[in-house]
Amino acid sequence: MPGPGAGKRAMLTLATTTPGEPEIFASLQGEGPSLGRPVAFVRLSRCNLACTWCDTAYTWRFEGDNSLSWRPHRDGLAFDRKANQVTLDEAEVAARIKALGQDRLVITGGEPLLQGAALARMVALLDGMTVEIETNGTVAPHPALDPLVSQYNVSPKLKHSGNPVESAQVPERLADWASRPVAWFKFVVATPGDVDEVLALVSAHAIPRERVYLMPEGTDSETLRGRERWLAPLALEHGLRLSDRLHIHLYGDTRGT
């Protein structure tokens, strides 16, 4: 029997590397529990949050949007939507991913779970490829997508992100992610005091510490290394893991890497 949405043409909205070219590429996973693994990447466009330090603001901060005034960014940049966003049929997206020849896929954004139904149809075409999804943790997985995902990299945004706490830290969602063995938590840390906020969230939502990574905020090696010097002892002290940003060291803050 055909499943939900059968017969409908599912479209995905993706970010771009250059105008008209979707951000689908092979690389090494740069963060979290899969760090260093060869993977295929697909970056989707659109996000429900607006981090002031976001390094992929081209997925959500578009010229002419009324939201620019309340979605600030430290660089003050706004992007042309037509040049930075492309819509493709889910079958074409799947074909491009398969052509990369990898056995593991990382779906990132933006916030990928905003497009859960279309993602479910796309992932179903990937013939058993292992799938991990990067998410800010505020959106529940679509029921058709959830069984197809092997790993969620959940990155709840702390106060320094500039998002309203009630939007960025949704208690019922955090508790649900904490209960899932396939969910790993990755907190972006800018100052030593941010770790206190992480510890409060870990305690409040019963997040297992062995699934928590602390990751320095930064888009250049010097900043990352400087913050890791004080972040590593804090991770050790509190029984948490430390994640680097390998892709920044290898390729810089560039698209398609």
Can you characterise this structure?
This protein is an alpha/beta fold and 257 residues long. It is 27% helix and 21% strand. An eight-stranded mixed β-sheet has the order 3-4-6-7-8-9-10-11. The longest helix is centred in the C-terminal third of the chain and has 18 residues.
* Unreliable sequence segments: 1-5
Number of strands: 11
SSE class = alpha/beta
Helix content: 25-40%
**In what order do the strands lie side by side in the largest sheet?**
3-4-6-7-8-9-10-11
In DSSP terms (H or I, runs of 4 or more residues), the helix count works out at 8
Q: Look at the structure and give the mean pLDDT.
A: 95
Rg from C-alpha positions?
18 Å
The topology string of helices and strands comes to EEEEHEHEHEEHHEHEHEH
Strand content: 15-25%
**How would a crystallographer describe the biggest sheet?**
8 strands, mixed
Q: Cα distance, first to last residue?
A: 40 Å
Give the overall form: globular
List the helices and strands and how they pair.
Blueprint: E1 11-18, E2 21-22, E3 24-28, E4 38-43, H1 81-84, E5 85-89, H2 90-99, E6 104-108, H3 116-123, E7 130-135, E8 151-154, H4 165-168, H5 171-178, E9 183-189, H6 194-204, E10 212-216, H7 221-238, E11 241-242, H8 246-251
Parallel strand pairs: 4-6, 6-7, 7-8, 8-9, 9-10, 10-11
Antiparallel strand pairs: 1-2, 1-5, 3-4
